User: Fold this.
Amino acid sequence: MDEDLIGRIQANPKFAELVHKKTRLGWQLTIVMLTIYYGFVLLIAFSPSTLGMPLSAGSVTTLGIPLGVLVILSAFVITGIYVRRANTEFDQLNQELVQEVRS
Amino acid sequence: MIRTLHGRLGFAAATLCAALPLWAAPALDGPVEQRSLNWHAIVMFFIFVAFTLGITYWAARRTRSAKDFYAAGGGITGFQNGLAIAGDYMSAASFLGISALVMTSGFDGLIYSIGFLVGWPIITFLVAERLRNLGKYTFADVASYRLAQTPVRTFAAIGTLVVVALYLIAQMVGAGKLIQLLFGMSYSSAVMLVGVLMVLYVTFGGMLATTWVQIIKAVMLLSGATFMAAMVLSLTGFSFETMFQTAVASHPKGSAIMSPGGLVSNPVDAISLGIGLMFGTAGLPHILMRFFTVKDAKEARKSVFFATGFIGYFYILTFIIGFGAIMLVLGKPEFTETIMKDGEPVKQLIGGANMAAVHLAGAVGGDYFLGFISAVAFATILAVVSGLALSGASAVSHDLYANVFARGHTNEAKEVRVSKIATVVLGIVAIILGITFENQNVAFMVGLAFAIAASANFPVLFLSMFWKGLTTRGAVIGGTIGLVSAILMIVLGPAVWVKTLGHPAALFPYENPSLFSMPLAFFSIWLFSKLDNSTRAANEKALFLPQFIRSMTGIGAEGASRH
Assistant:
């Protein structure tokens, strides 16, 4: 990559926008995932009885089961949200940027 | 790591020895009694081997350039790569191990599988696309992008080889024990068979064959597990409540299996384990290598999305399978044998608690399905060791040979030849180590591999992509401190110091070092980078901007021009 191209990319507002959006979404979702996971871990460590509560009176299924499955699903959904936005919106922005700086 | 669980779960030691020595690889612990030949499994297994060797032959004819050999020509789609990554992750031990863990302790099995899964989103956001945009074949390409090639590649290659060696030993020992049980073959012939097939796949078919072996195995494992879970649910009228009720009624621990049982009684170790699992995954060389097999960052992201879906689905299945095993296998006389342990007769599952899923396969699908599941378990080990061998061989040929010894004065053909030689050597070493370690407890090795990946490989890779101030000196010294401290903490910790070496008390109190060794690595990398005022360091900082632009936009990335 030559100096000139680097300069043009840096000067292009789309680059700043791309970096900003990608970084913000990435870190936001990272925090969401860490909160969900470590929230679950802390619940196990400090209040296992919460997870052991029956879902409804008389049922053997405990709250922990759907919560655990939700943690698994959330990992999938969070990845999906990022991939969807990155593969459409961000990539679109990126393509526009590449075309502009190369023209 | 397994041993960690041991201490924490607080169950009767006898049940545990059989139940837990398993997560990513070492499927079995202690002496295994050889069984009569299991013909159904052997036939199924040879069909798999014949099929994959056919694919290797096909791949060999398409593998010419170094790009073909290391990265399957970059032509794998996101979906296929997602399956392959899932295949790397769903090892025989996580299948047999987690379902066995669910059978013996219920809910705790779910906790464990969640720990394995939640690292994936983080990998998507932080690693996958930047890695694809910056690298060519190995993660050392990325780490040495703006740093001095020789020291950084040497460090990265050592990190790779250490992780690969530890993981390989664990897999080989697990493979030997498992095959002894499932197929009735002798331990050493099983280890040799695994080693020879691994060398064949990798040397002839390279990454293309390795990827397809991984994909086929992932599909077989997912369909087998789906069938088992569906059969279990059909018995309870597809009602989870009925399934849990039946299980609680027949489990000796009763309703205790429906809530956490003390897996995470020590919060420090629990968080440390979580960190090791999460960031270790992002530093495993054979997983990172998979991001170079797709054509661009878009496909790399999709790979992780599909992988997360497959792995999450698989863990939910293993949970159902574990409960199925409580209903159909646990305590049933036809699956139980009495063995002598420490002079006491103990009842256990035939072949040990790890065999829960295998016995359940027989119970719900008959002999042929039992054979199929046994063959899948073996196929799984083959696929995983092939991926490991390829990443070890790439570290030797691409990083050490081409960029350190020959300093770039070589050609692709020579480089590929060196990888093939390295694969053969790795295969021989793996067989020798597998046989040497037959009667050792290797369970801690997988934990060690993850801890090193999280404490040496990940910090260097992460900071090279995210921190402008990183210098060669910081990366090499800090990374080495991470590597050495992770090893020391495990050796001085309960798993090795007490359980393997027999000392009365551990010098380092925790089983999982990552909570300490990873921040130590980050701090040392930062410190030694800050202290580095050389002109080289100034130059390296100046190169961050072009690197950052490429990692973000993919401009100049390998293979992008081809499409």
